[in-house]
Amino acid sequence: MSGDCRLVIIRWQDSRQPCGQWRYLSSLPEQKAVEVASVGWLITDTDEVKVLAQNIGDLGSPQNAQASGIMTIPTRCILSIETLTEIDGPNVSVGPTDFADRRAGSAGSVGPAAAGHDLNFDSEPKPRELEPLLA
Q1: Cα–Cα distance between 50 and 42 in angstroms, integer?
Q2: What is the mean pLDDT of residues 74-93?
Q3: Cystine design at 65: which of 42, 87, 98, 118 (Cβ 3.0–4.6 Å)?
Q4: What is the value of pTM for the model shown?
């Protein structure tokens, strides 16, 4: 991992919520994994996991930096990682030494790809069509 925690969007596959009711096996619909998009600061980047923090506080005082909304995603579930950049505004970054209990990651490491999926790690951000979120 580089000296800064990058702001990224990670697209990854997750399991569906379990169905708690009894169902006939013969009438089950086709089951597929769910594609999830998560945004945050990449605070750990290893072959095993990517760890995102949705919130980082006390940026003006690195020795007191805090994080919340911390999520661990298995690297083998990741479809793509894109670095997000601001067009306007200050460029604030937090380095790995700002997290006392942070595990060291490896720079540019890529875990095994899910079968049949092209991984897009550390590539130039690519425009995507807006995707409506259904409530």
Answers
A1: 7
A2: 83
A3: 98
A4: 0.60
